[in-house]
From TrEMBL, chains A, B:
Designated name of the protein: LLM class flavin-dependent oxidoreductase
Keyword RNA-binding: no
Sequence similarity: Belongs to the NtaA/SnaA/DszA monooxygenase family.
Highest taxon listed in the record's lineage: Bacteria
Organism: Nocardioides pini
Keywords, sorted A to Z: Flavoprotein, FMN, Monooxygenase, Oxidoreductase
Length: 447, 447
């Protein structure tokens, strides 16, 4: 099978993705609100020709801040400052359709796309935390299906707003005094169940037309949403088989709604512990796991599966029987993933905590640079991935190891670019620039 | 009277404040979405040791985009990119209490204050445009009094959020594994008429504690809001007498609510046309006025006074009789200001349009550098201003003339700094850093 170029994002979590990384001597938790820390990371990823940096987000404080280095900069501002300090790399950030107004979000992403010269992506989330609801006047978090219904309409509204200026609406004709051709600036007059928005947006159409639509939901609702809207999907899989199933399913769904499956890139997470031998890599992972704190890890696991596990013996078996079937629960796919690990490996609760400590359910691999390159190549060649969201266990050093040791192997194998060929995130990802839905359809040339 | 150091902000309007500036050969309307344009302007103001740059905003497209260079970058992103490209100058941007959620706004300004190392100010507006309402699901714009009621509660909520982490809440103690002292991170549990917000904010307290609170309303509601909350007031006055009345009133109101009037800086707008002779300056203003377009100017004036004037003779008198008394109308103070000009000068409609073309009702002065410095000094010495929001008629060149010709005179007279003495916007403005309302009151030392 011919292997195409892979896409690589650096997923930046303040001190790295391992929950105990901030306790390691090489971490820099004192820089959690220092923008130069993030700018430097993005510059390293840019020097290595990564497609993008990626940021998660939720509009509430994690309830385990006592044991975790959390609570830092807000994504829109962080993304902007990174765009200002880089030239080519994409910048993907998370914003919620549940806790934003579409007009405000559309403006900020359009502005980001302008000021980055077309390098912005929006990771679309519906937000699955009750704590967030309590910061926005809601007693309870909206149910999964309701959130996706709002998300669908939200996407419709913001897409119209981003399309509301045709690309050539600005004339800036000093002589006639006409600044904009108002026939090419369209009210959207959206009236729906959740939103009523007149438009137009108060900014010209941006370099990419719209930000790249990124999405991460893996539930039934999430997959069907992704098939309609997503251009890149960030997804968590522990095994090749699960990733292949997801990849085939999401591409088929895209096809079934009339989209080119090439227009939807699947990017699983991978968190690599890298050593000069496999044993050294595993020992490093152990060192990190030894710094985890049960009071934190158990709370995380309890949140993930929706059951309070604090009364159980840490070295006893995971009590599968008390976990409800996966239904409407928050973190649907992540919860299923935990149950799959339990079914496959029968870990103790402590072992399970360690499995999840690395990257909250994303795949952690420990091995030599060749091992890491091999598994990346295998997943790419066997229909499981169009690229990866690289989630270093620790930062800043963890990404340097990957860039210095693994990326050269991927290049030798013809799997990763040695230079950017485009200037926008869409170009890095091989995605088309969408036309405005309000623009006249181009006439076909006739013979 | 001893004159203290003045404060100077550069109020950046894309091509300058004169409505026809974009038609002049020295303008750069093609850079309206080019962030480097704004970064360069901020760098010039920083080199001249200005206190801050300032941006207006409204979440809707101006309805006269055909004739005006409008619709550019969104303020939070623009401010962030400017902070990333400067080191000392303050960055003040406008956000609406009517069309934002307090948790979202609090996060973005806290993040901006972190990443700028304490240089951010928030220009608090309630937004007075019906077009904005239609972008946020409202049929009609909320009435003035309702907007101010929501603004009061909004300020209460965001202030609590900015105070929710005590300054020393983050420990980052690798050894014990305790990242934050959760006894110093406070839920706000706000339950009010407009908002229910649990908190805490998901970011540590920022360098300035809170952004500098800036405000511009001059109505009765606006003044009483300013007296309680504002630390800097941006205000429009055509005459020394009006400015003196406002200055005395607002300082008295601050005193009456128990505040030190020094903690509230009054900064009128000034838009200077500068020439080597007064006649040359006036001729330059005329050149700009000659490029105005009645279809645009009349619409602006009609909006300002709430009456459609398009059927009136441009060279006839302003029809005072059809303008309703100033009441709940949007742009209260600006509307009154127009009526005052009419009462004082009896202009034709065209003359009135020209008076307003320069800076939308702010004071336009045409003169030599000495004339400009003299009027600035007079207003400062006679109790009308603590500084000025400088509104160049055209940009980028208009600010260079002011910096090169007027600022040196102000320095010779001991009115303006030659070097920054502080690093934060609060320090530039001579404002205290507020303590968190949740921090224990410091014990007084006893003998």
């Amino acid at each position: 099978m011919t292997v195409r170029q892979l896409h690589l994002n650096l997923f930046i979590y303040p001190d790295g993705h391992h929950e105990a990384a901030w306790r390691r001597p090489e971490s820099q938790p004192e820089r959690i609100t220092d923008i130069t820390y993030y700018q430097e990371l993005a510059q390293r990823a840019e020097a290595a020709k990564f497609d993008a940096v990626f940021f998660a987000d939720g509009p509430a404080l994690a309830d385990n801040i006592r044991y975790a280095a959390r609570g830092g900069l807000e994504p829109i501002t962080k993304m902007t400052a990174i765009a200002a300090a880089t030239e080519r790399i994409g910048v993907i950030g998370t914003s919620s359709t549940t806790y934003n107004e579409p007009y405000n979000l559309a403006r900020q992403f359009a502005s980001l796309d302008h000021l980055s010269n077309g390098r912005v992506g929006w990771n679309i989330v519906t937000t699955s935390s009750a704590a967030a609801a309590h910061n926005f006047g809601l007693d309870a978090h909206p149910a999964h299906a309701q959130r996706y219904e709002r998300a669908e309409e939200f996407l419709d509204v913001v897409t119209k707003l981003w399309d509301s200026w045709e690309d050539d609406a600005v004339l800036a004709d000093r002589e006639s005094g006409v600044y904009a051709d108002t026939d090419k600036i369209h009210r959207i007059d959206h009236e729906g169940r959740h939103f009523s928005v007149a438009g137009p947006l108060n900014a010209p159409r941006s370099p990419q037309g719209r930000p790249v639509y990124v999405q991460a939901g893996s539930s039934e609702d999430g997959r069907s949403f992704a098939a309609r809207w997503a251009e890149a999907i960030f997804t968590a899989h522990q095994t090749l088989e699960n990733a292949q199933e997801f990849y085939a399913d999401i591409k088929a769904r895209a096809r079934s709604v009339g989209r080119d499956p090439e227009g939807l890139k699947v990017l699983p997470g991978i968190s690599p512990f890298i050593g000069s031998t496999a044993a050294e890599a595993r020992a490093l992972e152990e060192e990190f796991n030894d710094l985890t704190q049960p009071a934190y890890s158990l709370k995380q696991l309890s949140n993930l599966v929706g059951v309070d596990l604090t009364a159980y013996d840490l070295d006893g078996p995971f009590p599968t029987e008390v976990v409800a079937p996966v239904g409407d629960r928050a973190f649907h796919s992540r919860s299923q993933l935990v149950l799959d690990i339990v079914a496959r490996e029968s870990p103790t609760i402590r072992q399970l905590c360690h499995r999840l400590a690395g990257a909250r359910g994303h795949r952690v691999v420990a091995g030599t640079p060749v091992d890491i390159a091999d598994t990346i190549q295998e997943w790419a060649e066997r229909g499981a991935a169009d690229g990866f969201n690289v989630m270093p266990p620790w930062l800043p050093g963890g990404i340097d190891v990957f860039i210095d040791e693994v990326v050269p192997l991927l290049r030798e194998r013809g799997l990763f670019r040695t230079e950017y060929t485009g200037t926008t995130l869409r170009e890095h990802l091989g995605l088309d620039r969408p036309a405005s839905q309000y623009a006249p359809t181009p006439q076909k040339e006739t013979a």
